[in-house]
Design goal:
Chain A: This is Acyl carrier protein. The complex is a heterodimer of chains A (79) and B (351). Chain A is mostly helical and 79 residues long. Helix content of chain A is 57%, strand content 0%. Chain A contains four helices and no strands.
Chain lengths: 79, 351
């Protein structure tokens, strides 16, 4: 994961319901019409298999924007 | 460390029974069309079998046992041990296994008792019955495993109601010298007890009128304290972390790799979760069968039901090596490595 653009395109490929380009660094997950708790599961699974980083339900509650998720994953990858 | 192997015990047959009443998640009106699509894609649950009021787990297990005993040509008086594993018993007391002993017409000298476990129940049950038979020399035993989960899910709770289905199974085991050993790895973490729980109705919180009052937890989640509450994210995280870690350690201890197995059968919890575990374990997709789209999450019954539903043709008249993994409510999880040779697998019974 070199940059946030790459991270976003990985997320978008997993969410077929989202038109490419929908997600921006400043996008708030809760603002997406398609957003539901199912997406939390998809994000957790994706980040676990792609980046070997564990994100909990509480972690997801503590953030709102795409860039915050990116920063969280990046930080944990370094650890 | 609950890691051990048991010699001289062989699985001779597995049978399963499900209610004939089929429910489709496409008909679940609490969800919009796109939510239904996402739910089915993510969880894998498209159809489920649901009992009508009055039918119990033991009714399903009973019919499965009658059919299996007939196909095995076992005499009822030969059965010396019956264990019923479930979290949906006939009564608060007595134990359901004892009721089944009488209903099946087994000998009064047959020992019978219940074990209260869910998703990990099949693996645990196999370990207990094999261990008892090996230690005592009892020749023939029945492990009856299943759950009716739909009776304790609120139909207004989209986080539980569309996931679960009902099923009952029976596995017949026999003392057989030189049968290939069965290895187990069993684990528990009670700190996660609240992740999957029916909060009222036991002694900790006695059932009272308040227990039956339906409350809105969040939009789309309305349930009472007598209904199942599921923290999907916590269970998801637990499963994709602990299960592969334990499995990897287990495979190493018994000197096997994923290549050693013909099949890896997981508790049918949630397709995305199971696929994440499969990928982390690097099991080829063709070795990992699913029955979840047809039957949903059937709790303790899901592993034997998947074997009967998906592997019957391949297992008949052959010998295969299987890795089984159960995980969930408790939290409790366990794995078993075993060989199935010429097992009798009657067709699934519909009641």
């Amino acid at each position: 994961m070199n940059n946030i653009g790459e991270f976003i395109s990985t997320l978008e490929t997993e969410f077929d319901e989202l038109a490419p380009g929908t997600l921006k660094p400043e996008t708030k997950f809760n603002d997406l019409d398609e957003w539901s708790s199912m997406y939390s599961l998809i994000i957790i699974a994706l980040i676990d298999t792609e980046y070997e980083v564990t994100i909990s339900g509480e972690d997801l509650m503590s953030i709102s924007k795409v860039e915050e998720l990116y920063e969280m994953v990046k930080l944990r990858m370094k650890q | 460390m609950a890691f051990f192997s048991i010699q001289d015990i062989a699985v001779k047959g597995i049978a399963a029974a499900v209610p004939s009443n089929m429910v489709s998640n496409w008909d679940y009106d609490l969800l919009t069309e796109s939510e239904k699509k996402l739910l089915i894609k993510t969880t894998g649950v498209e159809q489920r079998r649901m009992v009508l009021p009055g039918m119990t787990t033991s009714d399903l297990c009973f019919e499965a046992a009658e059919k299996l005993l007939k196909e095995l040509h076992w005499k009822k008086e030969e059965i010396e041990i019956l264990i019923f594993v479930s979290q949906s018993t006939d009564f608060y007391l007595p134990a359901t296994a004892i009721i089944l002993q009488d209903r099946l017409g087994l000998s009064k000298s047959c020992m019978a008792f219940d074990i209260g476990l869910g998703c990990s129940g099949y693996v645990y049950g196999l370990s207990v019955i094999s261990g008892m038979m090996k230690a005592t020399g009892l020749k023939k035993g029945l492990l009856m495993v299943g759950d009716i989960s739909t009776a304790t899910c609120s139909n207004e709770d989209k986080s539980t109601y569309p996931l679960f289905g009902d099923a009952g199974t029976v596995t017949a085991l026999q003392y057989e010298e030189n049968a290939k050993s069965i290895s187990f790895d069993l684990n528990s973490d009670g700190s996660g007890k609240d992740a999957i729980i029916i909060p009222h109705g036991g002694l900790r919180n006695l059932a009272s009128p308040e227990s039956f009052v339906k409350e809105e937890i969040t939009p789309g989640i309305v349930r009472s304290k007598m209904d199942l509450a599921l923290n999907g994210l916590d269970v998801f995280n637990f499963s994709i972390k602990e299960v592969p870690n334990s499995l990897k350690e287990f495979l190493e201890k018994i000197g096997t790799t994923t290549e050693s197995y013909d099949y890896f059968v997981m508790h049918q919890a949630n397709k995305l979760m199971n696929e994440t575990i499969r990928k982390k374990m690097k099991f080829a997709p063709e070795k990992v069968p699913y029955s979840i789209s047809k039957y949903g999450n059937t709790s303790s019954a899901s592993i034997p039901l998947t074997i009967v539903s998906e592997l019957s043709n391949d297992l008949k008249n052959s010998e295969k090596k299987l890795l089984l993994a159960g995980f969930g409510v408790g939290l409790s999880w366990g794995s078993v490595s075993l060989n199935l040779k010429n097992v009798v697998l009657p067709e699934i019974i519909e009641l």
